[in-house]
From TrEMBL:
SUPFAM superfamilies: Nucleotidyltransferase. Functions as a ribosomal silencing factor. Interacts with ribosomal protein uL14 (rplN), blocking formation of intersubunit bridge B8. Prevents association of the 30S and 50S ribosomal subunits and the formation of functional ribosomes, thus repressing translation. It comes from the Bacteria. Interacts with ribosomal protein uL14 (rplN). GO terms for cellular component: cytoplasm. The gene is rsfS. This is Ribosomal silencing factor RsfS. Pfam families: RsfS. NCBIfam families: rsfS_iojap_ybeB. GO terms for molecular function: ribosomal large subunit binding. It comes from Marinitoga hydrogenitolerans (strain DSM 16785 / JCM 12826 / AT1271). The keyword Repressor applies.
């Protein structure tokens, strides 16, 4: 499998934001993580309003990665979590309940990361 260009990764990030928005995810944020010590280009962070909503958002993101033939390194398969992760290597999607998002505060933790306005 060939490595994707920076442009292709950014385009996929935009498509993930779009699909999350279409599925009524709340407060979608994109952080440019290229200058962080992590080996990831973008964090996409979103909030869902119920366990069912979180899982629907996760499933939509997984389908988008598969549709674009983008390798998935990891995604949460169980239910009952307040923080779901879909790890596509260069793009990591974090889907939270409102309480968990506030508690873990990834935007605060990575406050030096550039926030990208995609919507």
């Amino acid at each position: 499998m060939k490595l994707k260009s920076e442009e292709e990764i950014f385009e996929l990030t935009k498509e993930i934001v779009k699909i999350l928005d279409e599925k009524d995810a709340i407060n979608i944020k994109v952080l440019n993580m290229k200058n962080s010590p992590l080996i990831v280009d973008y964090f996409v962070i979103a909030t869902g309003n119920s366990e069912t909503h979180l899982n629907a958002l996760k499933d939509a993101v997984i389908e988008k990665f598969k549709e674009k033939n983008h390798k998935l390194l990891y995604f949460d398969k169980d239910r009952g979590y307040e923080w779901l992760i879909v790890d596509g290597g260069s793009i990591v999607v974090h889907i939270f309940t409102e309480n968990a998002r506030e508690f873990y505060d990834l935007e605060g933790l990575w406050s030096e990361a550039e926030k990208i306005d995609i919507q």
